[in-house]
Amino acid sequence: LLWLLLALAWLGTALGGEEEGGEVVAEEEEEEDGEVASDDLEEEDGVLVLHEHNFARALSEHRVLLVEFWVAGLVAPVALRVAGRLDTESIVRWLRRRAGPRATLLQDTATAATFVSSQDLVAVGFFKDLGGEAAQVFYEVATEMVDVAFGVAEAAELFQEYGLSADTVVLFKKVRGRRGGGGAILVLASPHQPLPLQFDEGRTDFPVEGLDAAELTRLLRVHSLELVMEFTNEVQPGLPLSLPGLWPPRLHSAPPPQTFDQIFGANIPHHMLLFLNKSSAAQLALQDGFRAAADAFRGEVLFVVVDVTGLGAAVLSFFGMTPADAPTLRLVKMENNRKYQMDQDDFSGAAIRVFIQAVLDGKVKPRLLSAEPPEDWDTRPVKVLVGKTFEQVAFDETKNVFIKFYAPWCSHCQAMAAAWEELGERYKDHEDIVIAEFDATANELENITIHGFPTLHYFPAGPGRKMVEYKSVRDVETFSKFLENGGMLPEEPPVVPETPENSTSREDPSPLGTAESRDEL
Ligand SMILES: *[C@@H]1O[C@H](CO)[C@@H](O)[C@H](O)[C@H]1NC(C)=O
Ligand SMILES: *[C@@H]1O[C@H](CO)[C@@H](O)[C@H](O)[C@H]1NC(C)=O
Ligand SMILES: *[C@@H]1O[C@H](CO)[C@@H](O)[C@H](O)[C@H]1NC(C)=O
């Protein structure tokens, strides 16, 4: 029985006729007023239209139902947000895995060999007892990991054929066009085409003793990635890109599901990025050292090549880079989006290994973006802060500093710009009050991460490096009241001060900062 919360009227055709007694996609629709309640099953474009009177009948008549539950006017945005880039193919795969067998039973060596070579990635569980606990864990993983083919084997003949004696999950990978260490580089007809899948090893064994489903999933995910991935996601040019430091980039469009999902779906805690110009043979050759360093960090650091002249160009802004900066290396810590850079790029495998180990050991400081301060940054009524000048101004213990963190493209920021200027004018002669702004798309701070635009923070005078987020109405009078009242609004309960150190881990930026009042990231 399948209930999927997504509008997929066209899935009916996608599955068309292929599955016996097949899945039926249904929609629930509000009844027209005055319509007689009946349990008739009616179709619209091959999709059953369900409502409270015929739902039970549909359930009893079909082995499997895929049902979209929807609320008029709401479903599309919600579904898009939740589901991201679900496409027909992945939904069909998801459905097949649930409606059909989760893993193919391999009876003998011939069927096993055929199955293993049927796809790029095949996971086979060898279990002495297919009814046992270990096999159940494997089935559980198979249900969710629909992009990999799953098989199970119990026969002694198969254990022997694959050289196994205990329960084991084996991931079989197609090895193609393998490049030896220091060997020839595969030069493609078009430099902008992604490389074909090319695993470095054909098979990885996981003894299942003590593995739970989460850990087995993680291992299979990690080992289904190529040792070096390439970032090949199309980003629509001209669309506002969000914060520069964010990796994964928050794409404002639904791009085609290329390697983006694999790279970010594996949940590997660090990404090591090699930016290069794939049109340059000399730069292409740098992949050798990069690849040589990768194996030692498998599962901990994912190695990704970004072609700055191809599909990778669009992500350069997230790193404050231009194509001319290639070749270069960056390491990103995924948990906080901090980026690390060698003092001087060195592309040898040994140097890359040493650098990564130093970052993992906490011995390297993250590299933060900062624009140059404009000449008149501190003579304007609204001071213009950048990464480099932030610390000295915001944490000046003799001043109360009120800062707007904004993005140039954000409409809510533009809407409050005049009010902020006016506030600056109003307080320009107050010795102890500073009104400032900070372009958070060109500057990063070590301990403050901005989650939505605009974000307003107040840094009161005095010791303790306090920071208070302003979450009220964005007009001059309310801003003034807040300032005059020492960083809180009289009629509201005091805002709990937070230290900058703690703000980086906040998930939910502000109860007031809804989509209506600010651009969330
Ligand atoms: C990339 O390399 C090619 C070949 O060397 C060169 O013509 C091109 O200008 C380079 N592109 C960039 C952005 O550096
Ligand atoms: C950021 O936080 C760390 C850890 O609390 C601290 O050592 C460091 O001085 C802080 N940096 C700034 C610029 O506030
Ligand atoms: C910062 O966060 C940690 C963990 O959430 C908490 O234990 C600590 O008290 C917080 N510190 C401050 C100064 O709020």
From TrEMBL:
PROSITE patterns named in the record: THIOREDOXIN_2
A Pfam family the protein falls into: Thioredoxin_6
GO MF, any single term: protein disulfide isomerase activity
InterPro entries: Thioredoxin-like_sf, Thioredoxin_domain
Residue ranges of domain Thioredoxin in the record: 359-488
Listed Gene3D superfamilies: Glutaredoxin
GO biological process: protein folding; response to endoplasmic reticulum stress
EC number: 5.3.4.1
Region (Disordered): 19-39, 484-521
Enzyme class: isomerase
Keyword entries, A-Z: Disulfide bond, Endoplasmic reticulum, Isomerase, Redox-active center, Repeat, Signal
Predominant location category: endoplasmic reticulum
Family statement drawn from the similarity comment of this UniProt entry: Belongs to the protein disulfide isomerase family.
Listed name of the protein: protein disulfide-isomerase
